[in-house]
# Entry
Amino acid sequence: MANPMRIGIASFGTREFLALHSVCQREGHEPVVHVYCRSMKPNTPTDTYATATVGQLLQEIPAGIDLLVPGSSEGLAKSLAGYDLDLLVVYGFSWRLPPSVLRIPRFGVVNVHCSLLPQYRGPAPVLWAIRNGDTHLGVTVHRMDENFDTGPILARQGGIPIEDDVTPERLWSGLGPVISDLLADTLRLLPSGFPGEPQDGSRASYAGLLEPEFSILDTSKTAREVHNQVRTFRFIGPGLGPVADIGGRFLKVLRTRLTPADGIRLECADGPIWITESAPADSR
# Structure
């Protein structure tokens, strides 16, 4: 086996941190620091959910591992410089990493991205896969450069099922093992200097953050498109759904079916859909 690497991990949730940490340790390497971004963009106020996430991380993080919660890219670069890193592993970190961070680790920075790149580059590949009605998801591990998800591919695998009633927990049961296997393969490749395979930019698509208009249920779309709109919000979190005007009442649409069911029948562009779960919504 190659010499053990000192590794930093940058991610977005306790489960994800611990999964990446476990793979690195299993492959004989030494995770030394975890990095969590407390806001969607550097130099902006802390997001409301970040406090709870940091608390969970502090309870679960292995002994001897530092947790960095930077407020700026500059602060992140200065902090990481002191860890003598061989590699930084990123999964779901919201910030674009500047050159000052990318050049710190000896073997660079690798990113775990939940699509078969160059498809669905950007911050929300899973949401767009659900929105578009994809039946399967892929994972790519690639070298990071200064742009979002454009670096050379180190490992990738498709075929992860997306269930109709998809939730983060259900998706993770298929996604987690694939991420672990691909990261393990990557850790074995890097010491040999494998550069990765360049992406074909002509085949790229972008998965950006959902536009505000997507929060309004759009019955000018097909029934399946409306169903996928509801599925996307269900994946984001419990109790979330697009808003619809149903008989003069604004409702959050929480669950739908494409076949007849007990509930509210709603006409879409190509036929009906049935709302089987809803909740009162605030004004539009």
Observations:
- Residues 212-280 form a domain with the Methionyl-tRNA Fmet Formyltransferase; Chain A, domain 2 fold (CATH 3.10.25.10).
- Helices lie at 14-26, 50-60, 73-80, 99-102, 125-131, 168-189, 223-236.
- The mean pLDDT is 95.
